[in-house]
């Protein structure tokens, strides 16, 4: 499988779980990533959060 | 409107291309790239990355470096795939805080005066630090550097600089970074890895060359004529003009 289609709710749930497992808000995570204050594993999760946020933002209904 | 089949085909092609070159270099056990998109009608965006997060690069079967690559893409109304943002980051492989060694970024529409395609080095260089500390105030970038270093305890950091690399059309791609790392760090690799690199590079550069020709068709016509081709415009509409926003940009 080279493409995974995710429901919006599922993307939101995954992002929330990742942030919970990191015990950080998205802002804290971005801040720590900017300061290179993450391990490789944390950085992998941070990249995943960034990807999900991009997809969620793009999928959100425009106002 | 973009059909679901179109997005799927382009996303799968791109993920497969990245998987082929990565596995062709480091071996078939390397985790495949995957594309992801939100399921909804007329979806136009997708992201391609490695679910495991990193390409592990080994020396004598011991991990030395980790490469993280992500591509944020959009299908245009005409059905063309466009990378809106990509990032290729090289880390040392250890459990400590993961400060990158180098990162290659592409931002289709940067919101500051930085090159669309740029490289950031994470290194210490006393002379460079001094130059950064004394940056001028004539530009927004210079003022930003000054502001940063005027804060108590803030030290210059080479990674604040965005070095241009080839412009958007001729920016380095994942295969270029992998090839450099294999050659210069003696990374464990597949016997015939260069064939995989060349195959992927040819595909990428052909796409980029087509786009570059559209940026400046007059240059392409002139050079083809120099080579002996007869080039004649034969559509009813006027010939396409240069796209200065692309041809002239940093």
Largest interface: which pair? Answer: A-B, 28 and 38 residues
Helices and strands of chain B, in order, run as HEEEEEEEHHEHHHH
- Specify the number of helices of chain A: 3
Oligomer: heterodimer
Mean pLDDT of chain B: 92
Tell me the radius of gyration of chain A. Answer: 12 Å
> Largest sheet of chain B at a glance?
8 strands, antiparallel
Structural class of chain A: mainly alpha
Specify the overall morphology of chain A: globular
The SSE order of chain A reads EHHH
Question: What can be said about the biggest beta sheet of chain A?
Answer: none
β-sheet strand percentage of chain B? 15-25%
What low-confidence regions of chain B span 5 or more consecutive residues with pLDDT below 50? none
- Span from first to last CA of chain B? 31 Å
Question: What gap, in angstroms, lies between the N and C termini of chain A?
Answer: 34 Å
The averaged pLDDT of chain A comes out at 90
Spans of at least 5 consecutive residues with low confidence of chain A: none
What is the total tally of β strands of chain A?
1
What Rg of chain B, in angstroms, do the CA atoms define?
Answer: 21 Å
Give the proportion of residues in helices of chain A. Answer: 55-70%
Number of helices of chain B: 7
What does this 3D model show about the protein?
The complex is a heterodimer of chains A (63) and B (250). With 63 residues, chain A is mainly alpha-helical. In chain A, 70% of the residues lie in helices and 6% in strands. The longest helix of chain A is centred in the C-terminal third of the chain and has 20 residues, at 40-59. Chain B is of the alpha+beta class and 250 residues long. Chain B has 7 helices and 8 strands. The mean pLDDT of chain B is 92. Chain B starts with a helix and ends with a helix. Chain A binds chain B through residues 1-8, 11, 36-45, 47-48, 50-51, 54-56, 58-59, and chain B through 8, 11-12, 15-16, 19, 32-40, 43-47, 49, 52-54, 66, 68, 70, 72, 91, 93-100, 122. Strand 1 of chain A pairs parallel with strand 1 of chain B, so a sheet runs across the interface.
């Amino acid at each position: 499988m080279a493409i995974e289609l995710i429901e919006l709710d599922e993307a939101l749930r995954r992002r929330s779980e990742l942030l919970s497992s990191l015990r950080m808000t998205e802002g804290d995570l971005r801040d720590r990533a900017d300061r290179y204050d993450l391990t490789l594993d944390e950085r992998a999760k941070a990249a995943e959060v960034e990807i999900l946020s991009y997809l969620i933002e793009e999928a959100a209904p425009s106002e | 409107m973009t059909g679901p089949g179109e997005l799927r085909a382009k996303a799968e092609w791109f993920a497969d291309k990245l998987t082929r070159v990565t596995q062709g270099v480091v071996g078939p056990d390397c985790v495949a790239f995957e594309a992801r998109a939100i399921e909804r009608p007329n979806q136009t965006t997708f992201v391609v990355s490695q679910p495991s997060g990193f390409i592990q690069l080994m020396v004598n079967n011991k991990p030395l470096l980790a490469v993280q690559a992500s591509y944020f893409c959009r299908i245009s109304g005409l059905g063309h795939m466009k990378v809106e943002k990509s990032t290729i980051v090289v880390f040392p492989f250890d459990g400590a805080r993961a400060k990158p060694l180098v990162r290659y970024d592409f931002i289709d529409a940067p919101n500051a005066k930085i090159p669309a395609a740029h490289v950031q080095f994470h290194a210490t260089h006393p002379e460079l630090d001094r130059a950064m500390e004394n940056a001028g105030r004539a530009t927004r970038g210079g003022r930003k550097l000054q502001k940063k270093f005027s804060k108590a305890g803030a030290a210059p950091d080479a990674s604040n600089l965005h070095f241009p690399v080839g412009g958007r059309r001729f920016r380095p791609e994942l295969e270029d970074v992998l090839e450099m790392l294999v050659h210069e760090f003696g990374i464990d690799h597949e016997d015939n890895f260069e064939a995989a690199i060349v195959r992927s590079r040819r595909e990428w550069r052909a796409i980029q060359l087509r786009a570059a020709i559209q940026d400046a068709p007059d240059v392409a016509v002139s050079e083809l004529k120099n080579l002996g081709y007869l080039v004649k415009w034969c559509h009813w509409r006027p010939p396409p003009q240069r796209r200065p926003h692309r041809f002239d940009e940093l």
